[in-house]
Amino acid sequence: MASGKELCEGVEWRIRVVDGSSEVLVPPTGLARKVWLRTKGLISGLGMKVRMFLKQAWDMGANDPRKVIHCIKVGLALTIVSLVYFMRPLYDGVGGNAMWAIMTVVVVFEPTVGATLYKCLNRVCATCLAGFLAVGVHWIASQSGDRFEPFVVGASIFILGYRVDKLFDLAHQRISTIIIGTSLCILVIMLVCPIWSGQELHSLTVRNMDKLSDSLDGCVRLYFTNSNGEDDQKLQGYKCVLSSKASEESMANFARWEPSHGRFNFRHPWKQYLKIGASMRSCAYCIEALNSCINSENQAAESIKKHLSTSCLKVSSSSSSAIKELAESVKKMNKSPTIDLLVEEMNSALEELHNDLKSLSHLLNPSTTAENQISATGLVPFMEIIPVVTLASILIEISVRIEALVGSVEELVKESEMKDKIVAKEEKPEEP
Amino acid sequence: MASGKELCEGVEWRIRVVDGSSEVLVPPTGLARKVWLRTKGLISGLGMKVRMFLKQAWDMGANDPRKVIHCIKVGLALTIVSLVYFMRPLYDGVGGNAMWAIMTVVVVFEPTVGATLYKCLNRVCATCLAGFLAVGVHWIASQSGDRFEPFVVGASIFILGYRVDKLFDLAHQRISTIIIGTSLCILVIMLVCPIWSGQELHSLTVRNMDKLSDSLDGCVRLYFTNSNGEDDQKLQGYKCVLSSKASEESMANFARWEPSHGRFNFRHPWKQYLKIGASMRSCAYCIEALNSCINSENQAAESIKKHLSTSCLKVSSSSSSAIKELAESVKKMNKSPTIDLLVEEMNSALEELHNDLKSLSHLLNPSTTAENQISATGLVPFMEIIPVVTLASILIEISVRIEALVGSVEELVKESEMKDKIVAKEEKPEEP
C-alpha cells in the first residue's frame, strides 16, 4: 500500500495544451486531491457502466431487431395518442380525460398482435361491465327515494371507489377515451411491421424441428464416428425444444385472437401446434437419454460399436431426414409426398438394426470371468455391450416417437386444409 | 317431435297458491306460448351457466385458498386507498389526483410479496426518472430565453405528452399519490397472510423432489412386480418436475427482492434452487426414458426380469430414499446426517446390479435362430434381454444424476449456512 502511494505521488500529471506543448499539472494536495481522485474514479466508472449498458442495448437490438421495432411502435402509438391533447375539440370532447387514452395505450400495447388484441378486448369488456354496474347502482339509488339515496350512493362509493356527480358523462368520456386508445393500438400493431403470435408459433415449431433433427443425427454420428468436427451448438439444439413449452402455450393462446394473416385463417388449428410440440419434446427427452449414453463412463467395445455402427447410423440419418421433411411439411402447410417413403426407409433401417442386434450374441463371451481371453478369441464381455445396446434401444424408441410426430403433423395439415376449404366456401358466395 | 308436443299439451300447468289449493294455468297459445317457452329455456340455460360458473369459482377457491386470500387482499388495499377520496385534507393534498393512488394499487398488486416489491420499485423509479426528465426540460426551457422557450416546451410535450403549467406541483402530487399507493400495497401484501415467492419456491422444490422419488420407485416396482396397485398419479409425478422450469425461474427472480422472512435471510442463495431444479429435471428426463422402456412393445423374458429384479429394485428404492432424504434436507435447511450412508447404499446396490448384469450372459442363448429351443434349454434369445438391460442402464444413469443432485443440494445448504453466519455476525454488534 505504502509503496503504491509513493509511486503514485512520484508520477507527474501532464496535460497536453492545444499548441502541442504539455504542462505539468501540480497535483492538488491532501483532502482536495483525494476527493478529485475519488470523483474521477466514480465518473470513469459511471461512464464505463453507461457504455456497457449502451453496448448491451445495441447487441440486444442487433440480435433481435423486432425489439427495436416494438419500441418504435410503442413510441408511435404514444405520439399519435398524445395528439389528442393538442386538438382542442378532441381534448374537450373527452372532458380533459385524454390521459386515459394514453394509459390505455401503455397498458394494452404488447409485442404481438394476438396479445394486444386480447388485452384490448379485456379492457373494453371490463370497462363496459364496470360502467353498467355503476349505472345500475345509480339507478337503484335514484329509485330508492330521498331517504335511502345517500346510503346507497355512500355504500357503492365505498365498494366501487368513485366520487363523481355526472355519472353518465363520466361513463361516456371514459368509454370514448378507451375506444380511442384501443383502436389506435390495434391500428398501429396491425399496420406497422406486425408481429403475429401465430406466425411466431409456426416458425418456432419449424425451427425446433430442424434443431431436433440436427441434434439427433449429430449425437449418433459423434458416437460412432468419433468425429470432433460436430458443432456443439447443433448437438445441444434439442435443449431448445425441451424449454419452449411455456412460450408455445402463450403464443397458441394469443394466436386464437388474431384475424387471418398470411397463410393462416382465423380458426387455424393452433392447438395442434401444442400437440406437435409435446411430440417433439417426447423425442427430445429420448435424445437427452441418448446423450447420457454417449457421455457415459462405461465405454463400449470397439468391435461391438463397429458391428452396430452402420445400422444405427442408418436409423439416425433416416429418422432425422424424416423430421426435416416434417419441418418442410409444416412450413409449406401441405402433406409431404415423400414422408411415407421416408418413414418406410426408417422402418427398414430399424429392421436392419434389429437383425444386427440379434446377431450380436455371436460376439458375446459367455464366460463372466474370462476377461483376459478377449484378445485371443475376439469375444467381448457382456458389460461392454450394454452401452451400445442401450443406445440402440433408445434409438428404436426415438423412431417410435417420430411416428407419433408424423401423425400429429399430418393431423395439423389435414385440419388446416379443412379450415381452408370451409373459409373458401364461406367466402365464395360473397364474390360475384 | 309431434308426439312430444302432444304430450306437452296434455300436461296441465299448475301453480300452488298461498292458501294451499292449486290453480290450473291455462297454457298460452300460439306465438306467445312459443316466446314463453323460448324465454324459459333461455333463462334456465343462463341460470345453469351461472351455476356452473359459481361452482367452478368455488372449486378453484377450495383447491387453492390462496387465490381467495389474494382477492380479499386486493379488495382490502383498494378499499383503504379509496379512503383517500373521503378524507378531505388527503384528497385536497394530492390535488384531486387520488385516482393515481388507486391506479398504482391496481397496477402493482401481485399475488406474492416479491413480485409486488419488484413492481413497486419499478414504478417508483420510473416515476422519479420521468419527474427528473420533466423538471430538466422545464429548466432548459426557462433558461433558453423568451425566444426559444415555446419551442423547447412544445417539443418536449410532443415527446413526453404532458400539458401542465404547474409542473412542480404536478410532480409533487404525482409522487405523493404513487408513494401512498405503493406503501399501502407493501403494507397489505406483507401483513395480511403474506405469500412469499421464496417460500413458494422452497416448497415447490421440496414437493418436486418427493414426486420425483415416488415416480422413480413406482415405475421400477410396476415393471418388476407387475403390481396394478400403483397410483397412476404418483407414477406421472415426474412430469411436474419437467414442466416447472418457467415458474421456478420467475419465483427465484422475485424472491431476490424479498426481505428476510421465516428461515430465509435477505440474500438466501435463491439461484442455487435453479441449479437443483435443473438437476431434478435431468433425473426426470431419464425417468421419462425409463417409462418408455416399461411401455415398450418388446417385452422382456420373464427369467431375465427375475434375474435382475432384486438388484434393480434395490437400486431404485435406495435412490428414491436418497431423493426423499434430500427433500428432507432442503426442507430443514441442514445437511442430512444419513445422506452419505444412503448414497453408499445406492452405490453398493449399483455394484450388485453390475454383477447381475455381468452374469446375465449365462442365461443367454448364443444361437440367433434357436428361438424354438428356449423352453427346452431355459436360455433366452438376445432380443428379449434388451429391454431389461436398457432399463438397468438407464437406472444406472439416474443414480449418477442423483449424485449430482446430492452435490447441488449440499451446496445450497452450505451457502445458506454461510449466509446465516454472515447475517448473525452483522446483527450481533447491534445487540447489547
Can you walk me through this structure?
Two copies of one chain form a homodimer. Chain A is mainly alpha-helical and 432 residues long. Chain A is 75% helix and 2% strand. Chain A folds into three domains: 62 residues, no CATH class; 125 residues, no CATH class; 224 residues, Phosphate transport system protein phou homolog 2, domain 2 (Methane Monooxygenase Hydroxylase, Chain G, domain 1, Up-down Bundle), CATH 1.20.58.220. The first copy, chain A, contains 17 helices and two strands. A two-stranded antiparallel sheet of chain A has the order 1-2. In chain A, α9 runs antiparallel to α14 and α14 packs antiparallel against α15. The N terminus of chain A is likely disordered. The interface between A and B is large, with 48 and 49 residues.
List the keywords:
432 residues, two-stranded antiparallel ribbon, transmembrane helix (chains A, B), homodimer, mainly alpha, Aluminum-activated malate transporter 10 (chains A, B), 3 domains, Methane Monooxygenase Hydroxylase, Chain G, domain 1, ion channel (chains A, B), disordered N terminus, 75% helix
Short account of what is shown:
Two copies of one chain form a homodimer. Chain A has 432 residues and is an all-alpha fold. Chain A folds into three domains: 2-63, no CATH class; 67-191, no CATH class; 197-364 and 372-427, Methane Monooxygenase Hydroxylase, Chain G, domain 1.
